[in-house]
């Protein structure tokens, strides 16, 4: 079973371990995930910056990687 994604993980860690997450994050409007500065940002911080619910995104991502 793959390690679950948490909102404290950086975008770099999420994308490295789960490249399929890019599509979901992009669909949520988080196009900045490819930016070098955003790579160190946590999913929680990125979600806040975009006015999104980090917990909802985490649930969706973990459903996708099951």
Short description:
This protein has 66 residues and is mainly alpha-helical.
Question: How would you characterize the overall build of this protein?
Answer:
The protein is mainly α. It has one domain (11-64): SP0561-like. Helices cover 48% and strands 0% of the residues.
Question: What key phrases describe this protein's structure?
Answer:
mainly alpha; single chain; 66 residues; SP0561-like; 0% strand
**Envelope shape:** globular
Question: What is the makeup of the main sheet?
Answer: none
Q: How many β-strand runs?
A: 0
Query: Roughly what fraction of the amino acids lie in strands?
Result: under 5%
Provide the CATH architecture: Orthogonal Bundle
